[in-house]
Amino acid sequence: MAGVQARSLQAKDGSFGDRSPRVGSTPPDLLAEVFHALNQPMAGLRCTLEAALAKNRSPEQYRQYMETALEKACEIEHWTRGIGEFVLADPAVPFNEDEKRQRLSLKQYLRECVDDLALVADSSRVCCEINIAEDHPIWFSPHILKQALFRIHELALAEVGESGVIAIQDVRLGDAITLEYGLRRGEAMGKNVQDDQQHRHRQIWMELSFATAQRLVETAGGRLTKEILPEETKIRLQLPLAQS
Prior knowledge:
Elements lengths: L1 H4 L24 H24 L5 H30 L13 E4 H18 L3 E5 L5 E4 L1 H19 L4 E9 L2 E9 L2 H5 L4 H24 L3 E6 L4 E8 L4
Parallel strand pairs: 2-4
Antiparallel strand pairs: 1-3, 4-5, 5-7, 6-7
Helix pairs in contact: 2-3, 2-7, 3-7, 4-5, 5-7
């Protein structure tokens, strides 16, 4: 995402100082699993190129090898982009000018993102229930809020699958407002049998994306949590209210 990529780890003097990426809050073994998933297409790419160069081949055979190599290269790009976004979302890095916090209408920003979510949900036969009682002025970065909502909605759609339910409501507690996403999987999701490795890689990617969203939200003074219950998964985005 462009906004994440725009954040720099460098200090004003050009050094990295003591603001290197912090991974202590990362879910246990997540990065190890991510790099393991990345290593598989890298090894596949090397084996494909070695086989292609092992002996003279026809143009058609070379084309087939190059198609396989391109597929592996796309997988590598996918994982490295996710890793880069996670690293650059480090809460220890100071704000850029376009990430400064300001007074925002939560309903306005949510409406824009939910409209996009509803369009995708409709095409996937996902039921989207939105129950926002009132508008809440929040003190947050609009740039980071849009990125966080985009990632949450992307994860929500992946979590519920076809014919699932996404229920969004607001809960006010003290000086903060929480957007709660209730995610209930559709029947098709439970019946879908996938290749074990492909399914695990999908789970790892979702965990990495959620961890990136957590770091982004923490950067701007918010909090993002996930609770897995027997019947549904709840994602909660806590945002500070603007002072009157």
